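Protein: DUF1127 domain-containing protein
Species: Stutzerimonas zhaodongensis
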Amino acid sequence: MPAMWPIELQEAAVEWFKVWRKRRLYRRLLRLSDRQLRARDLSRPCLMEKAYMPLRQLLAEQREVCKPR
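Structure follows.
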């Protein structure tokens, strides 16, 4: 049987990757004009905050949102 990474390590790597992709999406959205952002109900200041937030902080926010109640 081949060796496997610990499940927790795999899950952590996937979480970090998802957060990194989300931050990359925010940065790509910043390239749009203000008119295009308004059409998508997005605000530039909010996007800028999210786009330049540290990955650790974005991950903590995502974990809070996804926390089971």
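Remarks: The chain has one domain: 7-66.
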